[in-house]
Amino acid sequence: MLLERLPRVHLAELPTPLEELPRFSQALGGPRIFIKRDDLTGLALGGNKARKLEFLMADALQQGADVVITCGGGQSNHARQTAAAAAKLGLGCVLVLSGSPDQPVQGNLLLDKLLGAEVRFVTVSGIFGYDEANEKVAAELRAKGRRPYIIPVGGSTTLGASAYVAALGEIAQQLKQRGLRVDRLFLASGSAGTQAGATLGAVYYQTGIDVIGVSVSSPRDELAARVLELANATAAKLGAGCKVEPSHVKVGDGYIGSGYAKLTPEGAEAIRLLARTEGIILDPVYTGKAMACLVDYVRQGRIGRDENVLFLHTGGAAGLFAFAEEIARLEG
Asked: pLDDT above 90 covers what percent of the chain?
C-alpha cells in the first residue's frame, strides 16, 4: 500500500494512548469500554485533525503554497488545528467560518485569533456549503500574488482519510500488543473523512471491527453514501487492493438533536458521565453526541456484555466553553 510513501509532516504526537474506562463501564452496567485518545495529539490542544493535517499540509508545501484556506462552523475544531499547523510551518492561514462576526470570541474562535489566522465570516447552508466562499478567497489571494491551498471542510479528502487508515493500523498494533480484541469502534462523523478512513483501515488490516460513525449533521443515507464513496476513492489512491462494501458502512443515527452544533440533553449527560467517572472531557458538537450513541446502545442491549467497545475521542474540548451557559442550565 502507498500509505507509507505519502508526503507527511510531523504535527501529531503519535501513537496516542488507548485506555480502558472501568468506572464508566461500571456506571453503565455494560461491556468493557476503551477509549482511543486522539484528543491528545498535541497540536493546539489536540484532536483528530492533526493526523489529517500531517498529509494535507505536506501536500500544500509540495505545491509551493504560502497560505492555506479552510472552513467550518464558528467553533470549528478543524479550523483551530489548521491555524496551528499553518503557524508551526510558517504559512499564512485564512479561515472561512459560518456565523456572525459579532459572536463572542471564545473557545475555538479565541484560539483561531491567538494563532494568527485571518477569520472571515460567511453564511452557508449545511456543512458542505463553503466551496464558493473558499474559491472566492483563493482568487483574491492569487490576485495579490499569494499561492493559496484550499483544504475542504473537515480535511475530508482522500489525503485526509488516509490518516485514519494509518490510525487503524496503529490501533490494530496496540490491541495486538495487549492481547485485546475490539468488536465495535464508535466515532463522531460529520464531514465523513475520519469514518471513511477508519472503515477502510478496519477492512484493510482485517481487524474484524465494526466502525460506527455517529452522525452529527447529516441524514443516515446521505452520510453513508459519502463515507462509502470517500473510502473507496481513498482505497484506489492508496492501492489498498480491497474494497469497502455498503455493509461495512454503519451509521449511528438519531443523535443530532435539533441540529448541527446544538447541545442535546443526551450529549450533555454523556459528557457529564465520562467526566465524573474517568476525568475525561468531551465536547457538545461531536464527541458528546457520539458517546450518547454508545451509551444508548448499551442501555438498549444492542451491545453484548461480552463485547469490547472502543470509543475514538476526536477532541474538541475547546469548544465546550462556547456552551457554558447551556451546560450550566442543564446542571441546574
From this structure: 93
